[in-house]
Amino acid sequence: MQENGWLREKSLGSGTIIDPDGTILTCAHLVTDFQSTKPGLKGKVSVSLQDGREFEGVVLNFDHHSDIAVLKIKSKTPLPAARLGSSCKLRPGDWVVALGCPLSLQNTVTAGIVSCVDRKSSDLGLGGIRREYLQTDCAINIGNSGGPLVNLDGEIIGVNVMKLRDADGLSFSVPIDYVVKIVEHF
């Protein structure tokens, strides 16, 4: 997008409010510059809530290795916050739901099952990165990144980070137990 002669980069993704004060979990690749040799922030982050309210977000911290970022928005009133669950309780075959805004289609919900609870990054050809993901068959697309993976009790059990480009039904999330450890170290 061009604005006043300058090229302005725009990312589209999802996130989850995790406390009433406006702390939001999302993906680092949405709010940081992965192309720079010195990773930096993309600047202002525009946040649109499900109820239509808009905020300017501030990136509090991010971790490129896990692709997790934490944002903060300021609201005059407490915000509805999601409940965090535990990913260690998941088993293959458990039903889960992915929430997000794929292709700018807000409030999209897809359902699926957990296919694998410890898919290694090396299995996916991600050289140099050592991570384990939750693998599901939930339909996720561009715009779902950063959105929550939820169990049937409504608890966040993962952060959706990617899908395989040329395959359907292969979606990957960072387990919430790992995300919580990362956020605690910020």
Automatic annotation (TrEMBL):
GO MF annotation terms: serine-type endopeptidase activity
Concerning Gene3D superfamilies, the annotation shows: 2.40.10.120
Q: Which InterPro entries match?
A: Peptidase_S1_PA, Peptidase_S1C
Matches recorded under Pfam families: Trypsin_2
User: What biological-process terms (Gene Ontology) are attached?
Assistant: proteolysis
The family classification in the record reads: Belongs to the peptidase S1C family.
Name of protein: Protease Do-like 14
Which taxonomic lineage does the organism of this UniProt entry have? Eukaryota, Viridiplantae, Streptophyta, Embryophyta, Tracheophyta
